[in-house]
């Protein structure tokens, strides 16, 4: 025997041949087997998954449920699908030039009317199905359980209709699942970023809700959530009212309640937080508006979360922010800002009743950025500066590229200050600040974390937005922390 022969390499060829032979036998077995229940379903399901149409429709249906977790799961599923499809089309199909199976053993009634013309390995349909289902499940196991049988059926249909070998489907599914985990590595799921359960607060446990008065803003579409809350906490008092009466009802509730509850968007929650601080009562927040940043960052996404926290007496202390301008002051739990954003808020409110919340936000942004204006002049850090935007977050916001920022610690004692410098082309500068993501400095913007901020030389009539509300300020404006000033119910992670 020649000394140049590598004995370890010899079995590779025979092993590959055996695997391919097994793959062909499995395909032939599936093709010749009678599948009476599959004939009217699997070919149609396979066609519906062409170009991801089935998964886009599924994502739309999930988003229509209007629950934050479902919307995040749908977005994650589509992002995973996009990565899997890109990988399949750029690397997978071009790396292995495997021909499609022969259709001779496949009954004609099963065969697709239009046969694929691309190479067989790996299965793009299976990759997309696995990517979408895995991405959804990583964000929402409940929705994942709904989507998984459909995804499995799509993968199975590719063998059933004779367009793929079983190994094509398995490889595609593995690649799709890997794409979903890769997306999770880039953008962690909400469950991976759990707000710290500190500092814990001593609050009463209300097993049946007695002592909780929940004031619900009817303009926020809260009826379903309020009914669900009453099912879990039957002795809680529910007060539903129009926006104009929310403050008065919250004031009356805070004067006699053991726990003050509020259901609505961030503006309604802001009012409740200010009243809870003044009356020194714990707050129970049930998200119910278009934007619910505070509740979601707190870890309360719906009725089930809040009900569990109230029944068990689980709560934490969180920071609040306060701005003072002369005799005028206000409280914020999310953020306040000066510059173009307050103008955007006013434009959004102006159009929201006509076209809806999200379209109004887009329209407002376009109108604000196209308007001919001068940057805001404000003094801080010892000198006056031109600014397009000054954002002050109550707590540090973590940003990941273009995805929305969120806070993981609501009691860190810091303001997250983001500045977009004045100059030409405000739209480009604002976009550059968004694209910079977690970077703290760029030619367009800067970021710093501080415990207190003082502004001077603010022009009369300057708009300041706080938690979706807008007011006018001028002269000296001071922003300060109220550390751990607000006690809020939230479910705590089990040890």
Word description of this protein:
This protein is α+β, with helices and mostly antiparallel strands. It is 44% helix and 24% strand. Strands 5, 6, 7, 8, 9, 12, 13, 14 and 15 form a nine-stranded antiparallel β-sheet that branches. A four-stranded parallel β-sheet has the order 2-1-3-4, with helices on both faces. Strand 5 and strand 6 form a beta hairpin. Helix 5 runs parallel beside helix 7 and helix 13 crosses helix 14. The radius of gyration is 28 Å and the shape is elongated. The N terminus is likely disordered.
List the helices and strands and how they pair.
Layout: H1 12-32, H2 42-48, H3 53-63, H4 68-95, H5 124-139, H6 141-160, H7 166-186, E1 212-217, H8 223-232, E2 237-241, H9 246-256, E3 259-264, H10 266-279, E4 283-287, H11 293-298, H12 303-312, E5 315-325, E6 328-332, E7 335-339, H13 340-355, H14 357-370, E8 376-380, E9 383-394, E10 397-400, E11 403-407, E12 415-421, H15 426-436, E13 445-450, E14 452-466, E15 469-489
Parallel strand pairs: 1-2, 1-3, 3-4
Antiparallel strand pairs: 5-6, 5-15, 7-9, 7-14, 8-9, 9-12, 10-11, 12-13, 14-15
Helix pairs in contact: 2-6, 3-4, 4-5, 4-7, 5-6, 5-7, 8-12, 9-10, 13-14
């Amino acid at each position: 025997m020649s000394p140049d022969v590598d004995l370890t390499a010899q079995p590779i060829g025979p092993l590959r041949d055996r695997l391919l032979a097994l793959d062909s036998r499995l395909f032939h077995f599936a093709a010749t087997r009678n599948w009476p229940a599959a004939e009217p379903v699997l070919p149609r399901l396979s066609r519906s998954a062409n170009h991801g149409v089935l998964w886009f429709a599924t994502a739309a249906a999930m988003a229509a449920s209007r629950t934050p977790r479902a919307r995040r799961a749908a977005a994650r599923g589509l992002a995973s699908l996009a990565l899997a499809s890109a990988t399949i089309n750029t690397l997978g199909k071009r790396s292995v030039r495997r021909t499609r199976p022969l259709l001779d053993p496949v009954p004609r009634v099963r065969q697709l009317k239009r046969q694929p013309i691309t190479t067989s390995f790996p299965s793009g349909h299976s990759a997309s199905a696995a990517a979408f289902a895995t991405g959804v499940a990583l964000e929402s196991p409940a929705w994942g359980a709904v989507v998984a049988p459909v995804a499995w059926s799509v993968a199975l249909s590719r063998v059933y209709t004779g367009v793929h070998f079983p190994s094509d489907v398995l490889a595609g599914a593995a690649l799709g699942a890997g794409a979903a985990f890769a997306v999770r590595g880039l953008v962690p799921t909400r469950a991976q970023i759990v707000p710290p359960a500190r500092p814990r607060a001593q609050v009463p446990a209300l097993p049946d809700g007695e002592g909780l008065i929940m004031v619900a803003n009817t303009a926020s579409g809260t009826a379903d959530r309020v009914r669900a809350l009453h099912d879990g906490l039957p002795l809680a008092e529910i007060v539903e009212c129009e926006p104009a009466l929310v403050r008065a009802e919250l004031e009356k509730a805070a004067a006699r309640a053991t726990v003050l509850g509020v259901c609505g968007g961030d503006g309604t929650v802001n009012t409740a937080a200010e009243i809870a601080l003044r009356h020194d009562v714990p707050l129970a927040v049930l998200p119910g508006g278009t934007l619910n940043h505070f509740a979601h960052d707190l870890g309360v996404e719906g009725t089930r979360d809040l009900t569990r926290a109230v029944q068990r007496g689980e709560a934490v202390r969180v920071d609040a922010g306060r701005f003072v301008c002369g005799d005028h002051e206000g409280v914020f739990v999310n953020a306040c800002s000066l510059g173009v954003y307050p103008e955007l808020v006013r434009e959004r409110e102006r159009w929201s009743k006509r076209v809806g919340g999200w379209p109004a936000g887009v329209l407002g942004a376009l109108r604000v950025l196209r308007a001919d204006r001068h940057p805001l002049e404000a003094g801080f850090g010892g000198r006056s500066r031109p600014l397009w935007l000054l954002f002050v977050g109550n707590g540090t916001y973590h940003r990941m590229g273009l995805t929305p920022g969120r806070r993981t610690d609501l009691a860190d004692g810091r303001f997250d200050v983001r500045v977009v410098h004045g100059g030409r082309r405000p739209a480009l500068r604002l976009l550059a600040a968004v694209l910079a993501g977690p970077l703290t400095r760029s030619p367009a913007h800067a970021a710093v974390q501080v415990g207190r901020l003082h502004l001077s030389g603010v022009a009369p009539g300057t708009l300041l937005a706080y938690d979706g509300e807008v007011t006018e300020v001028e002269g000296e404006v001071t922003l300060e922390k109220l550390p751990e000033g607000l006690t809020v119910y939230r479910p705590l992670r089990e040890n």
